[in-house]
Design a protein that fits this description.
alpha/beta; seven-stranded mixed sheet; 7 helices; six-stranded mixed sheet
């Protein structure tokens, strides 16, 4: 796992597939996603001496984002939160759904998801707080972005100028586009457009390089384009 400090209180934890983020407030950390199964020890090592995880917010239930939720939930004093639609899946109350793959996505998934559980197979964990659109957690506003999964969310910290897109948007080689592997592509495109609001100084994707400085505008440009960029569609 690579550790990348994006700001004094914002740290990216990059796994072989995807990434999580740690947002610090004083000594308290909100962890955005938990990486694939078996990542808890690496996360703990990456944050040792930097702060203490008090809350985990899952952007959606896929294994590369929620795979270590149960492990992290065992840490003392940690609260887990997710949108209520995906919380049901993480708890084991409902079955996850397979994405509807395009031919290009089928080929990509075979490569990037090798060794990960299939999308419906979620490592079950407790969820302490069910979220809804517009909820605010210590300055983080929940933006419901269904389409990738039923309860996919993005998170915006307006005061700090940080946007976490989850997998609704992705970045690759300087291009920003619709994230792949969606259960409802049309709805995911509608959600993508919700990410166009200005004001972010840092944009953090579930997959791809964060946007900093002059590059931040790439997301708004993509979200406001006549057609949502969808190179794998």
């Amino acid at each position: 796992m690579d550790i990348v400090d994006l700001a004094p209180d914002l740290r990216m934890l990059r796994f072989p597939t995807g990434q999580a983020y740690a947002l610090r407030d004083g000594r308290d950390i909100t962890l955005i996603d938990t990486g694939p199964p078996g990542s808890a020890d690496a996360i703990a090592a990456a944050l040792d001496g930097w702060g203490r995880v008090r809350r985990v917010v899952l952007t959606h239930y896929h294994a590369d984002h929620a795979g270590s939720a149960r492990e992290v939930a065992a840490w003392p004093g940690v609260q887990l939160a997710a949108h209520h639609a995906d919380a049901r899946v993480v708890r084991g109350e409902a079955k996850g759904e397979w994405p509807t793959f395009t031919p290009a996505e089928q080929q990509l998934h075979a490569v990037v998801a090798a060794g990960l559980p299939d999308p419906p197979d979620v490592a079950q964990a407790r969820i302490d707080l069910d979220l809804d659109d517009g909820d605010v957690l210590d300055g983080l506003q929940v933006i419901w972005t269904p389409g990738h999964t039923p309860g996919s969310i993005a998170l915006r910290h307006e005061e700090r100028g940080i946007l976490f897109t989850g997998d609704t948007a992705a970045e690759h080689e300087g291009a920003v586009f619709l994230g792949p592997f969606n259960i409802d592509r049309g709805r995911a495109k509608e959600s993508f457009r919700r990410l166009a609001a200005p004001g972010a100084a840092v944009v953090c994707f579930g997959h791809g390089a964060p946007l900093l400085g002059d590059r931040v505008g790439l997301l708004a440009a993509a979200a406001n384009a006549p057609e949502v960029p969808d190179p794998l569609g």
